[in-house]
Design goal:
mainly alpha; about 400 residues; 15 helices
Amino acid sequence: MKDDGPGPSRERLSEPGLRSLFWIFFKIACTSFGGFMAMIAVVQNVVVERRKLLSSADMADGISLASILPGPVAVNLVAYVGYRLRGAAGAAVSAIAIVLPSLTLILLLSVAYFRYGQVPAVSRLFLGFIPAMTAIILAAAWNMARKSVTNLREAILVVAGAVVLLVAGGVWSTLGIVLGAGVLGSWWFRERSGPADSPPAPAVPVPPRPGDSKLHAVLPFVSTAAPLLSVDPGLLAKIFFTFGGMSLMLFGGAYVFIPLIQEVVVEGHGWVSQQEFIDAVAMGQVTPGPILVSAAFVGLKIAGLAGALAATLGIYLPSALLMIASSRVLEHIKRSAVIRSALRGVRPAVVGMIFAAGVVIGKTAAPVWVSVAIFAVSLLALLRFRIEAVWIIPAAGGFGWLFY
């Protein structure tokens, strides 16, 4: 991949192949419990800290872009990372890998639910995940802060981002933090006259990335196979466009989205009952990976496996395509001095929001000594011994199963 110009992106050491990229995000998805910020923290830990595939600044830019655009933030960020590394094919492979484990599990749970009317109890196991995920999020925020915060103004933006999100919360606070930090950064960190203000190199169109041709070869097979899975293409289209339309109205994470999807699928279309919707959300919360995969529950009930796939594609595909298109623009506009200054303001604010997310998730942990112990041991393992989250999460779950 060609260099994006001067800046932290030079820290990238290597580019993984598509198969390697799939397994990176598949393993992340299998251990990412606790919501989209938890998954973002694990992605940052693996992609930036361990494998050094992207720089910390690149990752912060992706988080900022995913926070501004509609759609599931974590999946959009993964699509951004895959696109930066391997183009359109990399984005597709990464997004599939990050969704596949939770989709498979929720389909199995949904089949059991519709057959037996209940979900297997996993509460004690999940209690162990919460303090461990809190440690992972805070460790990721700390590692990002060490690289993004170099002066008092950036520290102020970190604190401001955390405080606003903790006090106000909600979608408008998230957007306000990102936009406000960008405006403030363009003023605080604007580049003075001199070499930095010299005209940037002409923007070169992004060439096809390795694997793009493979993606184009696969798409016809996907489009051909999809109708074969359905007995009612019209219903599948309705499911896809319903969830696709909702995904383009989603700002601020899955929890903001729950009231909207409830109104549409329960009150509007009557596809599921109120109790079924609550159970679907619960299953999405106890499975690893993105919570919005619970949309597959709805699709499965009304149109079988094909309906589940249509709902999943609808909830993730439109916003991911928008994220990729915006990523192409970002690679060019980052060369602007104004944009660089704005992004320098946004990065520490994003760090603050991640700190806040860690606090919010930590508050949901059971107030007992076991939670404190799991949190402390996990944080020590991450920061001192640099143990991967893929090992920490199962250990924390087992510890919770034994002692809660």
